[in-house]
Amino acid sequence: MMMKNDQLLALSESAIRYNHFLLDYCQTSISALSGCTAGIIGLTGLYGFLFYFICSILMSFVLVAFLGKNKSDYFLSTQSLFTSTIWSGLQTYLLFWTFLYGMCIDSII
Amino acid sequence: MGKFVLTLGLIGLCHAAYSATQHKSYMRLTEHDLDSGSSHISSLPLDILVQTVLCLFLSCLGVIQVAAKFKPIKITSEWENKTWDNVANRTSFYSFNHRGKFLFSDVDSENQRLLSNYVNINRAENISKKEDYSSESENYSLDEQSN
C-alpha cells in the first residue's frame, strides 16, 4: 500500500518482486553479452569499464522504449530501471570480459 | 521473433569471436602483432568490430523481447477480470453435503418417474378392472343401439 495523490494505491508485492527478478535477469544477460563483446574487441583498462556502463545504460533505454507509455504499470520509478541492477551486473561483465579476452586476443593459438 | 533475433545475435557473436581469433593468429604469424600492444583498442579490422557491436545490439533486443514479460504491479489490475467467486475461492471449505444436492439433483425426475410408474400401475389396474366393466357396458351399449 502506498499513498499517491491523496488516494490509496494497492500494489501486489509478488508482481513487484517478479518484475525486479526479470529486470535482474535482463541485466545479467546483457552484462554477460557486453562482456563477451568487450573481450572480442580487446578492450583493456578503463575503456572496458566505460564500455560496460555505456552498454548498461543503453540497455535501460531500450527497455524503456520497449515498455513505452505504460511503464508506470510495471515499475514504480523509471530511475530504478537504470540504477537498481547496474553494480550487480559488473561482476558478470568482468568474468566474461576476462574470459573472452583470454580466449580471443591473448590466446597462444 | 525475439528468439530468432537472439539466436542470430549469439551466432554472430560466436562468428565474430572466431574471426578475431583467426585475425590475431594471422597477425602473430606474419609478425605484425608487435606494434599493436601500445593502443587500448586492438587493431581488429573494421568489419569484425562492426559485426561484434551489431550482434551485441541484436542479442540485447532478443533478450529483452524474450525475457521482459512484466506483470502489472497494481493489485486491482490483477483482479479486474476476476469475479468475486474466483477471488474468494477457498477449496478447504468446500461442502458438498448440503441442500443443493436435493435442490439441483435429479430427485424431481426420480420422483416423477416413480409417480408415473405408480400412475401407470394404477392405470393398468384400472384398465384391467375397466375391461371387465367395458365388456359388460359394450354389450349394454350394443343392446342400446339395437334398440
UniProtKB/TrEMBL annotation, chain A:
It is a multi-pass membrane protein. GO terms for cellular component: EMC complex. Belongs to the EMC6 family. Its main location: endoplasmic reticulum. InterPro entries: Emc6, EMC6-like. This is ER membrane protein complex subunit 6. It comes from Brachionus plicatilis. The keyword Transmembrane applies. The chain crosses the membrane at residues 49-68, 80-100. The lineage of its organism: Eukaryota, Metazoa, Spiralia, Gnathifera, Rotifera. It is found in: Endoplasmic reticulum membrane. GO terms for biological process: autophagosome assembly; protein folding in endoplasmic reticulum. Keywords: Endoplasmic reticulum, Membrane, Transmembrane, Transmembrane helix.
TrEMBL record, chain B:
The keyword Protein biosynthesis does not apply. Pfam families: MMgT. GO terms for cellular component: early endosome membrane; EMC complex; Golgi membrane; plasma membrane. It is a multi-pass membrane protein. It is found in: Endoplasmic reticulum membrane; Golgi apparatus membrane; Early endosome membrane. GO terms for molecular function: inorganic cation transmembrane transporter activity. Keywords: Endoplasmic reticulum, Endosome, Golgi apparatus, Magnesium, Membrane, Signal, Transmembrane, Transmembrane helix, Transport. InterPro entries: MMgT (IPR018937). Component of the ER membrane protein complex (EMC). This is Membrane magnesium transporter. It comes from Brachionus plicatilis.
